[in-house]
Amino acid sequence: MDSNSKSTVVLVTGCSQGGIGHGLCCEFAQHGCTVYATARRVETMEDLKGMESGALRFYTIRTSLGIHTLQLDVTDSASIKAAVETILALEGHIDILVNNAGTFCVMPMLEQDLNIARQAYETNVWGPLAVIQTTVPSMMKRGSGTIVNIGSIAGLNASPWAGIYSSSKSALHAWTHSMRVELRPYGITTVLVYPG
Hints:
The chain has 196 residues and is α/β, with parallel strands linked by helices. It has helices at residues 20-30, 77-91, 114-142, 163-183, and strands at residues 9-12, 34-39, 51-56, 59-64, 67-71, 96-99, 145-150, 188-193. Helix content is 39%, strand content 22%. The protein has an 8-stranded mixed sheet, sandwiched between helices. Keywords: NADP, Oxidoreductase.
């Protein structure tokens, strides 16, 4: 954390009510962090919204107890860029990025709709990488930062009817391990979490 910063700035993807990202936002806020909760649809984070505090570009930012909500679709590069630029314009930096957004894909492999499978990979594999590629350059300039990728025990132990989901999480795990080594020289810590 920058010694000149008043609080740690955290960006969390996939923060719909009832999920891991939502809970993480509340926990970070309780520890005094400035939190940016994001989701494809802002209305899924309704309980995190407070009073309207203003607008920047095409985003309406709402805040409550240090939690701000923004629209961010991890499969849309323009959405990622706009959200990250908004946070950097307001805060000057991002200390922690939590890649939590993900989607399930449950179907027998022989009946798997390949378009649905591709969408799962877009969300679970390429989406987090795209968010990192947009966020990390600012961390590299500061020489510090933390990336947390939310994997899954399913990425270690595939089960019937979840082959695509499991393989997408395995892919996330593999490139997270590579990235950890690549980013270490820049003062960036990379963490992989396996919810079970």
